[in-house]
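In response to reviewer comment 3 from the previous cycle, which asked for concrete evidence that the modeling workflow produces usable outputs, we include below a single protein chain processed end to end. The sequence was submitted unchanged, and the resulting C-alpha cells are shown without manual editing.
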Amino acid sequence: MPKNMSNCFLWEFAVAYKTILVYVDDSPHLVNRVNFSAKVAQSEMAHLIGVAVTGISRLLQLPTINVDPQFAANGNPYKPEYIDQLRHNAQSALTKFKEIVKPFNLPSIETKLIDDDASDAISSQGVYADLIVLGQNDNDNPSLIAKVDFPEYVALHSSCPVLIIPCAPRTETIGDSVLIAWNGSMAASRAVRNAMPFLQRAKNVRIAIFESANTDKAKQQESCEEIVAFLERHHIQVELVRRTVVDNIGQAMLELAIEKQVDLMVMGCVAHQRWRGVLLGGSTRVILENATIPVLMSH
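The workflow returned the following C-alpha cells.
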C-alpha cells in the first residue's frame, strides 16, 4: 500500500468515535440524551460509557449549596445520610441508562460513578473518550449537582468534542443534514475536524458564512474556498450559504438551521475565562440556550 494512502486510512480511523461518553443524571431529559448518544454509538460501532457523578466534592466546597431539606434540617448538609442519598441517586441514573440503551444492542457499554463535581469529572474523563454527550441547561429543572455553566465548561475544558442535546429536540435524527458555522478560526477548524464522522455520513452538509459591515470579503472568500477544498478531499460535498447579519450571529444561525431543516450544528466554542466558570461569546451563548437540534462544539 502506498505510504500516503496508508496515512490517509490511519487519519480516517483516528477521527472515528470509538469511545463515547454520556453524562447521566436524574434529569427529565435523560432519555433523549441517552437515545441520541446510543444512536451515534450504534452507527460508529462504538463503546458507550454512562457516567454519573455524586457532586460530593462540590458539596464540601460550597457549604451554602441548596440541599434536600430532609438532610439539611439540622443545618448539616454533610450528614452521612445525605451523601448516601447522592450516591443512590447516581446509581439509579446509571441503572436507567442501562435500561435505555438495551434495545440498541450496542457492541459494548460501561457505567462509571464518580465522587466529584460534574464539571471537573466529565471534563477529565474526556481524555479517554472521542466524544462527550451532554444535555442542554434547563432553567426550569436546575440541577443540584451540575453548575449552570456545565455544558460550556466541559466544551472548553475537555480534550475531545462535546455534543450537546437540546431539552426539546425537534428531530429524532442526528447528522443527516449538517450545518457548519464557519469563520476561519482555529476553533471552527477544530470543530470541523472533530465532526468528520458525522460529515462523512451526512446526506448534505452546508457551511454558513455570515457577513457584516466590517467583514473583509476578500479574506472571507479565500477562507471559504479553502475549507470547501479541504472537505472535498475527504469526499464531502458542501453547499455554501451566505447571510448578511446586523445583530447576533447566534440567532441568525438558529434561524438558518430551521430554514434548512438541519439536524446537527457544528461550531467552535470560544470564551473569556472568569473567576468561576466561563463567560461565553454572545453567539455561542445564544445557540447553547436556544438550540432545538444537537450542537457539536470544540474549543
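DSSP finds twelve helices and twelve strands in the chain. We consider this sufficient to address the reviewer's concern, and the full set will be provided in the supplementary archive.
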